[in-house]
Each structure stands twice: as structure tokens, then as C-alpha cells.
Amino acid sequence: MSLLExxxxxxxxxxxPEAALKYPIILNPEPVIFELKPQDLDAKDDLPxxxxxxxxxxxxxxxxxxxxxxxxxxxxxxxxxxNTFNQDEFLKILxxxxxSIARKLxxxxxxxESDKGYVGKLVGxxxxxxxxxxxxxxxxxxxxxxxxxxLESLMVNGLVEHSHFSSLISNLIEKxxxxxxxxxxxxxxxxxxxxxMCILKYFLSLPKDGxxxxxxxxxxxxxxxxxxxxxxxxxDGQSLLAIEKVKDKHLRKRLTLVRDASLLLMIAYDGFSGxxxxxxxxxxxxxxxxxxxxxxxxxxxxSEMMRFVRYLGKWLKKYDSFPDVCLCPEASSVLGLxxxxxxxxxxxxxxxxxxxxxxxxxxxxxxxEFHEELKSLNEIVNSLAGEARSCGKLSNLTxxxxxxxxxxxxxxx
Length: 413
What we know:
two-stranded antiparallel sheet, 2 strands, about 65% helix, about 0% strand
């Protein structure tokens, strides 16, 4: 079989393995290295590399591999008869398997099956020691049996293999789980163009039965907004109104961060629908580049383009109305305001609008329903451009004055 035939055969094979892998986990090298001994120590040769003996898989790794192989066979057998396999049984055997791993590692705790999210916590603790084959089968079972908490734990802990990204996203779209698709955007790195396109089109044309899953996304933004209000209440009101007069450097920095983060969350939440909040994650994501985004935007139809134009228009109006707003990368770690990491920048909005015009210029010009939206956007863009020009002139003036000051200081010395 030629190399091309081997590659072609591998590319068309199913992601789901037919048999458990022999070495599915990353082996611990330390106990192995200490047991290695050079072969033929007395041999008189000048070879720089000598064969070593004594290599073997550690006892603990062997036991974990055997646990995985046994669980793989059991779960695969259960999935062949899905009509007799339910969610409770799946959670029971998965929990038992993960507890067995924890015991081998010495990390078992006193959590009981009655604890909320019991299996999800086990995935976070022992899931790293699941083999690639086992993780793929568990992912398949989670989607089929709708074990969303376990699936969420798999994504949050980075246990979803890259080869399963596309099938997972398509299955979640089919099941209208917008909240879990948001998690895909947040936690699955290196999304492909087709994945991003499917997510973008789904958020722009969400079916009616998909709105229920958006409620959790809105609640998350609401909780972040309430937390921002709480952080404001913790600060002294007079100090917030006159931050520049606060003498304590650290306090002044925290007050500035609280104020800026609260303003950022306010403009990101007020006036946006549930689907808009989902789009925030996709537009602010750094998991893809402009080339991929342009390819995705080129596949939008008329109704999707209109919704996207209106979404981008909302953001332009926000940035025009609040020119002082700025990103707060420290708000997540310092204040717990994680949503600040998922607010699109003005640069992101401009890039999307530019790509939309590049890819669909003739459609936008020839169809009158777009004209009013574009006129409105043109006014806002002109306003923002005017501010940018003014800022540019001020920046140039500042640099000139700084240069003059340095020259004056040099002449005085």
C-alpha cells in the first residue's frame, strides 16, 4: 500500500475507534527511565547510541490502561443497543470508571453520587487519564443521551479531541443547544472555517425552539452585570466620582478598573438580544483569523446579512455613544468579571463590517432594504472617524511637545 493510499484510508475512517488503543494515555516516564540499563555494557564499539533494556510500562499506568480498555468495551457494547441504555446507567458506569482511576492515583475523595454534578466533578479530576478512544466514546454517549453536565465538563477541562469538533458542533446545532455551542466557542481551540460558519449562521437564524437554551446565556450575562454592580457598591462613591484625586496608587487603580469594567459590561448587555449575546463570544474570539471569518461571512444569505448588519450597527452606536469605554483584561482575574473577556472590540466590529461589505457589496447596494441600515451606519462611522482624526492630531501634538521638552532639557544641561 502506497503512502497516499495509507493517508486516504486514514482520512475516511470514522472518528469512533473500533477497538481500544494499546497505549491510550500519556505514560509516566520517570519510573521507566530509572530502570533502563545499557545493553552489552562490555561490548567494545564506538557507537554513540547504545541499545537500552529494561523498558516497561509502570504498574499504575498498566492498571489505568486496563481500566480504560474494560470500560471502552462495556460502553461500546451498551451503545450498540441504545434503546436499552439510559442516562442513569451511563452516569453510573462512567462514575464507577472515573472513581477507579482516582483510587489508582490516590486522589479519591468523599463526594457521593447524590452530590450535584458528581460525575462532572469526576471528569474534571480524573478525565485527563481517559484515553483518546474512551473520550471519543464518552462524548458520543453524552450527545446521544443528552448528558449535558458531563459534556460541559469535558469541554471546560479541554478533554474534547480536535477530530470530534465538527461532529460535536453539528450535533449541538441539531439539538438546538445554543448554550453549549457558546461553550464550544469559549473552550475548543483552533476551530475550522466550516465550524465557525455553522456557528455564525446558527446564531443569526436561530429557530424558535432554540430560544430556551439561550436563557442560560442571558442569565450568565445578568449575573456578571449584577456582580459589577456589587463591585461598585463596595467602592466609596465619592472616590469613584473623583478617582484622579485618590492618592493611594493601588486604590486608584482598582477604582479605575471597577468603573471601566462596569461600563464595558453595561454597553455589552443593554439593548442586545439573547442571540446577540451569543454572537459576542464568536466575534470576540481569537480562535480564528480574518481569512476564516471572511469565508464564513461570504456564505451568509440575505436575512442573515440583515441581522448581522443590525448587530454590528448596535455596537457602532454603543462605541459612538461611549467613546471612553475600554477593554479590561484584568477584570476577569481581579474582579471575577469573566464576561469582560468576551466583549468585542471596536476593531472587531470594523473588521466584520469591512468583510461584510467586501463579500456582499453588490447585494447590499442593489437591495433597497439594506439602504437605511447602511445610511445609519455611515453616519456613525463618519462620527467615529472624526474622533479618530482628532485623537490622531492630539497624539501628534503630544509627541511634538515631548520632543521639544527633551531638546530643551538637553540644552539646559
